[in-house]
Design goal:
Helicase, Ruva Protein, domain 3; 3 domains; FAD/NAD(P)-binding domain; Elongation Factor Tu (Ef-tu), domain 3; binds flavin-adenine dinucleotide; 12 helices; seven-stranded antiparallel sheet; about 400 residues; 24 strands; alpha+beta
Length: about 400
């Protein structure tokens, strides 16, 4: 069988390798001058390619119950074995897997060496504009070429970080075959607000408890580092709530975030702790009172928000001002007005519903012989190796799947 894989990214390369292992002729069509451009920028160039904790709660989809069938124990073990056999030695930090070399190129090169070993042809600079099916054959068109195939694996990615080649054009290729698309929204992305103190805290990193709030209900909480920016917030904790934020904004709802900048002490004990600290420190200025546990720029931002002078003393604040400051330190709340765009997003939520593919093979239920992988599908994951994890496993399933039905 002649199998064409459209897109030489994470899921496409794995799909090609598995398809070739079953003695198929496999060709990868990649629009860029070289494959795996996105892999190279993952994990800040180190490629966080897997996570040890594969609880389904780390994945998101409109058909979450179906992910169990894809991220199975066997598939997890097989994909780790796959990378092991490619020669990748993992460096595991808090369950996050990186290549021991600390270089994403190790993953890219390992995949491309295997592609070469299996005689898989890669045609670069081939942008698939159109795919047609006549009887049992597929025809794939670029602006100047036409290639035929018995089966097609569509691995064109999402529209996150389009400069890498995945710009969302694959959704249209799938739509042309009758697939529907669950709204595609930026995820693992920075969040924006409109507060006047953002300028003061720009560039600060803080260890916090970050909650996503909608209509006074806490929808999600993350603990860890966030980055404070002149437009709002960024960092891993922010990314992990951003998918839900995107959905709320898309539904024209108004999400808020609540930040506890003092997670080292129970909230209900914070006030008495601060009072004691004030006495022990012999009635310092507010600035001095806060300096031992908060970044200076953050102090200035929060004091600006509360209209309190930094040279004021705690004892001189009235009850209301004290409560306002305590609340800003332990539950600073502001509205999220937007996310950054797809350009800055690491992944997208939404895509082709899992209900439109056969979960054992990832073959389309709309068109026989068409397979779908990776971020094109309606699955996204938390930060920490889940998105590549899904890309590898879905590529493996489709790569094997092409041979299952012959
Ligand atoms: C900055 C950044 C950091 C990230 N870090 C991590 C991380 O550390 N860990 C993690 O798990 N995930 C990470 N991700 C997410 C991860 O990279 C993606 O989820 C994953 O690459 C998706 O794989 P894919 O195969 O679906 O698509 P991609 O890897 O995007 O591959 C799609 C390929 O298809 C090609 N293509 C598109 N359309 C066509 C066409 N019409 N014709 C021919 N070729 C086409 C594209 O050029 C591209 O090469 C990160 C993403 C970004 C942007």
């Amino acid at each position: 069988m002649k199998i064409i894989v459209v897109g030489g990214g994470a899921s496409g390369l794995v799909a090609a390798i598995y398809a070739a292992k079953n003695n198929n002729e496999v060709i990868v069509l990649e629009r860029n001058p070289s494959c795996a451009k996105k892999i190279l920028i993952t994990g800040n160039g180190r490629c966080n390619y897997w996570n040890m904790n594969q609880e389904i709660s780390h994945y998101h989809s409109s058909s979450l119950e179906k992910i169990d069938t894809i991220i199975t124990k066997n598939n997890q073990e097989e994909i780790l074995e796959f990378f092991n056999n490619l020669g990748i030695v993992p460096k595991i930090k808090n369950g996050y897997y990186y290549p021991f070399s600390n270089q994403a190129t190790s993953i890219k090169n390992a995949l491309l060496n295997e592609v070469k070993r299996l005689n898989i042809e890669i045609i670069e600079d081939f942008f698939v504009e159109r795919i047609e099916k006549e009887q049992d054959k597929f025809y794939l068109y670029s602006s100047s070429r036409k290639i035929d195939a018995d089966k097609v694996i569509l691995s064109t990615g999402s529209k996150a970080c389009p400069k890498t080649g995945s710009d969302g054009n694959g959704y249209q290729l799938a739509r042309n075959f009758g697939h529907s698309i669950i709204p595609v929204l930026p995820s693992l992305v920075q969040l924006k607000g409109n507060e006047n103190y953002f300028k003061e805290w720009d560039g600060v990193r803080a260890d916090v408890e970050l909650s996503l709030i909608y209509e006074n209900k806490k929808l999600k909480e993350e603990t860890g580092e966030i980055q404070l920016t002149d437009y709002g917030i960024s960092g891993i904790c922010t990314f992990n709530i951003s998918g839900l934020v995107s959905k709320l904004l898309y539904e024209r709802k108004t999400p808020q975030v609540k930040i506890n900048f003092c997670p080292f002490i129970e909230k209900e004990n914070f006030e008495s702790w601060l009072e004691k600290r004030n006495i022990v420190m012999n009635h310092p200025t507010i600035e001095e009172l806060l300096e031992g546990f908060l970044n200076y720029k953050l102090i200035i931002a929060l004091l600006k928000k509360c209209h309190i002078s930094k040279i004021e003393e705690w004892n001189h604040l009235d009850f209301q001002k004290k409560q306002e400051l305590i609340s800003s330190l332990t539950e600073l709340t502001f509205e999220i007005t937007d996310t950054n765009s797809f350009d800055k997003a690491q992944v997208c939520s939404g895509g082709i519903p899992l209900t439109e593919v056969n979960l054992d093979t990832l073959e389309s239920k709309k068109v026989e012989g068409l397979y779908l992988t990776g971020e094109l599908l309606d699955v996204d994951g938390d930060c920490g190796g889940y998105n590549l994890g899904f890309a590898w496993i879905s590529g493996m399933i489709a790569g094997k799947g092409v041979s299952k039905k012959c």
